Amino acid sequence: MAADDDAASGPPPHPLDRVWFHPSELGGGTALAPRPTSTRTWFVAVVALAVGMSATLGIVAAAGDLHARSSVIVERAVLPVSPEPDDVAGVVGSVGRSIVTLTATAADAADAVPTWIGSGVVVGSGRVLTAAHLVDPSTTVSVVTSGGQVAAVQVVGMDLETDLALLRIDGADLAPARLSTGDDLRVGQRVVTLGAGPAPRRWAATGVISGLDAVAPLADGVQGVALIATDAAVDPHLAGGALLDASGAVVGILTGPGAVAVPIDVARDVVAQLSASGRAFHGWAGIVGTDALDRPGGGVRVRAVTSGGPAATAGLAEGDVVLKVGDRAVGNVGDLAATVRRLKPGDPVSLTVVRGGTRVEIPVRLGTSVATPADWMVVA
Fold first, then answer.
1. DSSP 3-state assignment of 190?
2. What CATH number should be reported for the domain whose range is 79-280?
């Protein structure tokens, strides 16, 4: 501030030249010296008072309006509660009885000591879902409940394409887990991985969903599609365990070797098929493609079609760009493979494709997929 600003610019203001007084100043015997009044002085005081009141009311109104608007914004921004450190312990405690330990004993050695091989998730009365690569025909597999009960298992069926196996257990106290629908999964969502060690130990880690409809190798050397990828720590012994949301519902079955899980909607379908026939089948179109990165919204550019496969029979050609399967948009190869595999052999679908700049609909009747080696190109 300049020196001139600090200097007095005139005589000091009169003590009455203000809009507020202490009550003691208004009673009898006021010690303030009287000052001649004028119309101008009182007019200035009244205007100042009005301005002050208006400003105060304006601030209050603005604060109230801001509060109301901020309340609306907060309500619209409410998201499902993420599992905090203390909440994770609660989630583990609520789901712990639904996760069992899997052990294996060499079939040709009566005195062999069981080895801890992984985990399993109780999905129904006497039914446990686990990773198929843990079930070795040369060993005798047993489950150990959280209460320490040991029970032999019978393999109901296995699906190598999803690395899932359904086991039947008799005579054990099992508590079925609560299964999510899997409809509202989103990238960035907080999740908990949970597996069972030697009873009663539980192994848990937290992380987020880092990708959906991911393509990754499975432990049995097969190419896995429609997978949930997570950054949560997944020890090999957690294979067959559960991927949980913040409420403790199972959203996926952990497999491996990486931090991936089979989505619960796919797992439900596999359980139903294995329960009915001991086998599981998935849709297949016979399309080899690459991501159409040069198009807004993406898509899959067809590089080849399997000779005699459903897509080839329907007339899909190299260079076509697949945009939708039925009413579901596909942005990349992972989306396409996941969408087709969720369907059944024999299902009729309509592929929306762009051919030579023109959008056309191509009806396709799906075939049956087969397990694909992990190092092959993705075949939807």
1. strand
2. 2.40.10.120
Say which DSSP state 277 is in: H
pLDDT exceeds 60 at position 314: yes
Q: What pLDDT, in 10s, does the model give residues 124-179?
A: 999 999 999 999 988 999 999 988 899 999 999 999 999 999 999 988 889 999 99
Check: CB of residue 121 under 8 Å from CB of residue 177: yes
Contact 279, 245 (CB under 8 A): no
Residues 6+ apart with CB under 8 A from 105: 112, 113, 114, 115, 139, 140, 142
Residue 12 CA, chain-centre distance (Å), reads 69
Residue 346 CA to its chain's centroid (Å): 31
324 vs 93 pLDDT, higher one: 324
CB-count burial class (<10 Å; 0-12, 13-18, 19+) for 175: middle
Helix (H) or strand (E) holding 55: helix 39-76
Per-residue confidence band for 67, with pLDDT thresholds at 50, 70 and 90: very low
Start-to-end CA span in the chain (Å): 74
* pTM score of the predicted model: 0.76
- The helix/strand/coil state of 259 is coil
Whats the size of the chain, residue-wise? 380
pLDDT given for residue 335 in this prediction? 96
Q: Give me the architecture of the 283-368 domain, per CATH.
A: Roll (2.30)
Q: Residues near 330 by Cβ (< 8 Å), separated by ≥ 6?
A: 298, 299, 300, 322, 323, 324, 336, 339
Q: Quick count: other Cβ atoms within 10 Å of Cβ 66?
A: 10
Residue showing tokens 């989306």? 335
Between the CA of residue 36 and those of 13, 16, 40, 47, 120, what are the distances in Å?
13, 10, 12, 19, 94
